[in-house]
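Reminder to self: tokens first, then the designed residues, so the page reads top to bottom the way the pipeline ran.
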């Protein structure tokens, strides 16, 4: 049902009927809902998911309905929708069928602005920053404006507000042509260029839309004279006031002094020096934005001194050069830039305040934009030292054949000399960037999609890294995103978020306390001999007792040996052999270290670890250390329950005196038996527990599964209970092969095989750590 503005205004101002918003949780629609609620209108809204903004609106009186359903619009007086809502939407169709008035978001906003001294902020780039900056300045100058911004603004407290003052400042959207619907008293036009070519035919169509906005503006148009298209369109208008850096601008910036994430400059009004401004948001683009704010503020008869002071307190909107982390070692920034012009401006701002390496992560936004601006994107990243590209955020747009994030990757490789990598998986992207980050780096994420999730996680990870680094000794090794394939005997697995090798027991206690106080998961691993780590890696702290302190082996009185939990089983056996001390030869056939052998009461060739244990030293999660005799512990076959929750630190073992020849002979017998019954290729040992009726290896052999391959792994042809990695296999290959074996055992023999190998980590699904 088509309505004129007067009818919409009447429906909104009468407040008699419910106004329903389709997609109320979006950044634009939530602002409309907030202002309607503050006006006292009955408001309902629906969306696919409930978010924090919806919860805030519910506190104001919003009636929220989860998901979209035709019944949600029943008895509504007016339905408001955004351009993202398609005509196939259930609620949209129901409103049409019921004859309920339907209006676009822009039409509702235009009506809300109409009763006040309105300022419409338009342009392809910088609208959100300029709108929030102007609203912030007006509030600081006690004007109590109404405002509507397309993003969250911490400085303002909300993205929209119905104020008590005369002014209404609003960001208006040109992407769907609705810029022509507004009739503001004042307009700010920041820039005009080719953009949104999924809607506009060409630049002429875009210029026509902005020309209409200029015609509809009742009093003054404040335009950027540095932007060519904007200058050509408005320079001759008797309503126009220019701002910029050039001599032709009425409000002009001179003597610009860039700082670290700041700028200081002087402001001229024609030939009159107004004074100095320091902005705490970086870059020439933000200086230009502030000149627009100054021009409007002067029009409202505000003093320059008050305006300049207010501008100094502005810290920016969410995702507009938002600093997520700033320490002595690292800076992490997130920015909404998704057009080549915006990217250039953002990276230039970063470069102006940062002298060391800049690592940029860019998520392309929309297939159409990627296709149309491929060559421009190729040149947009010149101020970055390293560039990571991910796949396209579609924003409800249908894919275009042959267009992906790799389209820009290929263009950058051809055009630019900067180092570039293409990684569509966010989890892998996080891992790659965290691994290479070094002190002095600025990491900046760019894009209008969900790339900000990566920025937040990188910031958290680097903050944790610095936190744990500060409280541990220099000898403690701490690695970020360390590949677990380097630490498992099967040579597969994704990264450990933090791989930590404590220097000693004191640092181990500190690390455990830090993990507990910061709610960080932790796990201890040995040499990875009975371990399969999924390709998504392990979240939190992966502790490995690999320092010299935990690897020590000392000979005590009475042929007793003190050995650290990190000492490798075979090395302990060989070291004792040189001293003619035996009784541990079976341990040479147990891959891993003493800590793992204690934890599992591991054994081979009819010997078990606790056969030779006298006492054990271990630590709990609080860092409390216990020394216990073997007789004080519960010990079972391949199971010592205390080590499910405690960390083995060291043990005292009892040795027997033997000749070198006797020990060598026993080792030779064991080695011969082992290598004739077990494969030499990389494996995780026995994959399955033995079922009651027969050995797992024998069962797999009888099922005809020996040598069965998935990817780079296969069932050993020597022992059926071993899966070997002989062709650069992955954890996914191993897991798939495990499922094949389990299904075959169930189907053919009715046996439910259980895995003996410990499986840890996250699936490789692209979702970064929760």
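Designed residues (770 positions):
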């Amino acid at each position: 049902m088509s309505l004129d503005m007067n009818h919409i205004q009447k429906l909104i101002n009468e407040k008699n009927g419910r106004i329903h918003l389709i997609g109320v949780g979006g950044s634009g629609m939530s602002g409309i809902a907030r202002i309607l609620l503050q006006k006292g209108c009955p408001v309902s809204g629906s969306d696919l998911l409930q978010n924090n903004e919806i919860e805030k609106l519910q506190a104001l009186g919003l009636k929220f309905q989860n998901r979209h359903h035709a019944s949600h619009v029943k008895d509504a007086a007016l339905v408001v929708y955004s351009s993202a809502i398609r005509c196939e939407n259930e609620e949209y169709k129901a409103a049409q069928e019921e004859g309920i008035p339907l209006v676009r978001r822009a039409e509702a906003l235009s009506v809300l602005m109409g009763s006040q001294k309105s300022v419409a902020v338009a342009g392809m780039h910088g609208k959100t920053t300029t709108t929030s900056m102007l609203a912030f300045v007006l509030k600081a100058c006690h004007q109590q404006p109404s405002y509507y911004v397309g993003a969250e603004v911490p400085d303002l407290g909300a993205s929209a507000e119905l104020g008590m003052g005369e002014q209404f400042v609003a960001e208006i959207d040109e992407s769907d042509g609705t810029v022509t619907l507004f009739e503001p008293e004042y307009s700010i036009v920041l820039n005009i260029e080719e953009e949104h070519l999924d809607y506009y035919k060409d630049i002429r169509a875009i210029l026509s839309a902005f020309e209409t906005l200029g015609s509809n503006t009742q009093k003054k148009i404040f335009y950027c004279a540095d932007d060519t298209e904007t200058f050509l369109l408005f320079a001759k208008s008797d309503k126009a006031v220019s701002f910029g850096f050039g001599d032709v601008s009425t409000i002009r910036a001179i003597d610009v002094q860039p700082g670290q994430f700041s700028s200081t400059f002087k402001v001229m009004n024609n030939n009159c020096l107004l004074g100095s401004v320091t902005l705490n948001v970086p870059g020439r683009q933000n200086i230009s934005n502030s000149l627009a704010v100054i021009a409007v503020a002067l029009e409202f008869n505000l003093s320059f001194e008050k305006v300049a002071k207010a501008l100094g307190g502005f810290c920016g909107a969410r995702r507009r050069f938002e600093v997520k982390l700033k320490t002595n070692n690292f800076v992490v920034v997130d920015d909404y830039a998704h057009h080549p012009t915006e990217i250039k401006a953002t990276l230039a701002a970063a470069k102006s305040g940062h002298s060391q390496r800049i690592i940029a992560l860019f998520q392309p936004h929309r297939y159409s934009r990627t296709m149309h601006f491929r060559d421009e994107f190729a040149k947009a990243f010149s101020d970055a030292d390293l560039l990571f590209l991910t796949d396209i955020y579609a924003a409800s747009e249908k894919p275009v054949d042959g267009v992906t994030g790799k389209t820009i990757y290929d263009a950058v490789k051809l055009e630019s000399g900067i180092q570039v990598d293409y990684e569509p998986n966010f989890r892998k992207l996080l891992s790659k960037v965290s691994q290479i980050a070094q002190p002095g780096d600025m990491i900046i994420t760019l894009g209008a999609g969900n790339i900000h999730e990566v920025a937040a996680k990188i910031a958290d990870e680097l903050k944790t890294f610095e936190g744990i680094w500060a409280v541990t000794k220099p000898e403690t090794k701490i690695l970020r995103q360390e590949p677990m394939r380097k630490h498992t005997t099967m040579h597969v697995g994704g990264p450990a978020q933090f791989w930590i090798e404590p220097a000693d027991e004191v640092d181990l206690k500190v690390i455990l306390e830090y993990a507990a106080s910061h709610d960080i998961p932790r796990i201890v691993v040995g040499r990875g001999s009975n371990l399969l780590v999924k390709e998504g890696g392990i979240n939190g702290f992966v502790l490995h007792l690999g320092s010299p302190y935990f690897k020590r082996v000392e000979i005590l009185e009475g042929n007793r040996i003190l050995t650290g939990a990190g000492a490798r089983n075979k090395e302990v056996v060989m070291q004792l052999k040189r001293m003619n001390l035996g009784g541990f030869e079976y341990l040479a056939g147990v891959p891993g270290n003493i800590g793992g052998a204690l934890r599992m009461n591991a054994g081979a060739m009819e010997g078990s670890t606790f056969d030779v244990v006298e006492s054990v030293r271990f630590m709990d999660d609080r860092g409390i250390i216990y020394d216990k005799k073997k007789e004080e512990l519960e010990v079972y076959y391949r199971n010592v329950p205390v080590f499910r929750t405690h960390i083995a630190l060291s043990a005292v073992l009892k040795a027997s005196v033997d000749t070198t020849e006797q020990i060598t002979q026993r080792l030779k017998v064991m080695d011969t038996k082992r290598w004739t019954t077990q494969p030499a290729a990389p494996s995780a040992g026995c994959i399955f527990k033995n079922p009651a009726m027969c050995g797992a290896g024998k069962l797999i052999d009888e099922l005809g599964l020996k040598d069965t391959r998935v990817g780079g792994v296969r069932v050993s042809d020597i022992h059926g209970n071993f899966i070997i990695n002989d062709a650069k296999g992955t954890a996914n290959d191993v897991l798939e092969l495990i499922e094949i074996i389990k299904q075959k055992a169930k189907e053919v023999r009715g046996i439910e095989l259980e895995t003996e190998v410990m499986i840890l980590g996250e699936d490789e699904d692209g979702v970064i750590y929760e």
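The longest strand covers residues 251-259.
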